[in-house]
Design goal:
Length: 486
């Protein structure tokens, strides 16, 4: 197991040890009656359903109680609008995490007339992990009873219901969808939990059949299967893996290790937040899609993250690209659409993707491995300088493709500059000679605009020496200089 995967496993184990010290929570329940006097059995429901309001996103001030119609009136449930049901995941202590209120505010920003309901299953979620994982079936039944009640008692269409489940909560949403009397409109799985679910039957976990549309964001799939904090396999109609899904930018494990070494238990508390960073990034990417609708984050269908890193999957033909988050296009296919993208370290997370293709020439055959380059893009709206790229191989008389991305919206691309970085002084492979290649053209494709552009050397051909100088390329003239939507 790698260092990061081991650290993730230790996080789960340590949290489990803390949770084992608590006794299982029990709740007394009553059998409510509806307004007709007919007795209904909701006695098994332990989960609570808090309808939060835009003016009080941080507080549980009103609860919808299955079987008690007056609770819908008292909480001012909007029967003519959408309903979002937010389901949290496993927790060490029975307290909400800070992302809950942020998501509530973001949902109300985009859908101000909607109902945003928080499912409180904190008592069941704060047990030993394996117990909490098995509790997802019980909580899923609670949620199903709730949505069935509002559909049957109030003729509220489940086509207006969107379940959002994080970690274990994603599997709760899946169980609820399976048990709902009618098809729920949408389930969004935010990094569904991996341990105990990677190899589980579809009846026990989130799956594409659980709603009319199921979209999933995977942000922490590092480590061996079933030890990965987030589930690795595709479990929706669309499964999106930001930054390959294994680890997110800005979530530094080296910093976590340092804090553990320096501060002991206090360091563990701080490190805990960093360990959750990649897992929780799924939520913040969804929040970003609500808060920055004008900057949609694009994802691209691809067979593997290795192919995506080569820039080979930036096509939008036949639904091959989609938005991440709330504004996703609800495309259903027979097989899950596996999609990839890059993001920035912090919100707004959107970046612009480019595929770069370069053909290297030389008089003599040459092959170099793991070569570092810097590439700069200049456009009508901005510029992005010295973006590092490492090519696994540079060989003469061959074409190489790679992906670059930048948070800067450079507008219409005008100039490309390329520099071949010199090795460190500790690397003596090129001490007695300086490798050199010739480049005639650089081809660039934009994922966001789908434009293909060709850039030519000002002198017809540019000679690029390792560690010496910069090669500059400008937009070529002629009919092949630009190809749109290809």
């Amino acid at each position: 197991m790698g260092g990061r995967a081991l650290l993730a496993a230790l996080w789960i184990t340590s949290h489990c040890l803390v949770a084992m010290c608590r006794e299982p929570a029990t709740t007394a329940a009553s059998v409510p009656r509806d307004t007709t006097g007919e007795e209904r059995d909701f006695s098994g429901i332990e989960s609570k359903f808090s309808l939060r309001k835009p003016e009080q996103p941080y507080e549980d001030t009103c609860f919808l109680v299955p079987g008690q119609e007056n609770s819908m009136t008292q909480c001012r449930f909007n029967h003519s609008s959408k309903t979002f049901v937010v389901i949290h995941g496993w927790t060490v202590i029975p307290l909400y995490e800070s992302w809950i209120a942020k998501l509530v505010k973001a949902l109300y920003k985009t859908e101000p007339d909607s109902n945003v309901i928080i499912v409180d299953w904190l008592d069941r979620a704060s047990q030993h992990y394996t117990i909490s994982a098995s509790n997802t079936e019980l909580v899923g039944k609670d949620v199903a009873k709730f949505v069935n009640w509002i559909e049957e008692q109030f003729a509220y269409s489940l086509s207006n219901v969107h379940l959002l489940g994080y970690s274990l909560g994603a599997h709760v949403a899946g169980i609820a969808g399976k048990l709902a009397n009618k098809k729920i409109s949408r389930i969004t799985g935010l990094d569904p939990a991996g341990p105990n679910f990677e190899y589980a039957n579809e009846t026990r976990r989130l799956s594409p059949d659980d709603a009319a549309f199921v979209d999933v964001v995977h942000t922490y799939t590092r480590g061996s299967p079933d030890r990965s904090i987030g589930i690795q396999k595709p479990v929706g109609h669309i499964d999106i893996y930001p930054n390959g899904g294994s680890f997110q930018p800005g979530c530094k494990v080296t910093e976590t290790l340092r804090r553990l070494a320096e501060k002991g238990f206090q360091g563990f508390q701080e490190a805990d937040q960093l360990l959750k960073c990649s897992h929780e990034r799924s939520i913040h990417l969804f929040i970003d899609s609500l808060m920055h609708e004008e900057k949609p984050i694009m994802a691209y269908r691809c067979k593997s993250k290795e192919a995506f890193e080569k820039g080979l999957c930036l096509s939008c033909r036949k639904n091959r690209c989609n938005n991440l988050g709330y504004k996703v296009n609800k495309v259903r296919t027979k097989r899950s659409a596996t999609m990839y993208l890059k993001t920035g370290e912090r919100a707004p997370y959107k970046v612009f993707h480019y595929q770069v293709k370069i053909h290297f020439f030389a008089k003599e055959n040459m092959t170099k491995t793991n070569q570092d380059f810097l590439i700069s893009l200049y456009g009508t709206e901005g510029e992005s300088k010295d973006m590092p790229v490492t090519l696994p191989e540079v060989s003469t008389n061959q074409t190489f493709s790679f992906l670059i991305y930048t948070a800067v919206d450079i507008g219409d691309l005008l100039i490309v500059r390329l520099e071949w970085k010199k090795d460190s002084i500790f690397n003596l492979k090129d001490w007695w000679s300086t490798p050199e290649v010739a480049i005639q053209r650089v081809r660039v494709k934009s994922g966001e605009t789908q434009k293909k552009l060709v850039f030519c050397s000002r002198n017809g051909i540019s000679h690029l020496k390792k560690g010496e100088g910069v090669a500059e390329f400008v937009r070529c003239l002629g009919k092949n200089a630009i190809k749109e939507n290809s």
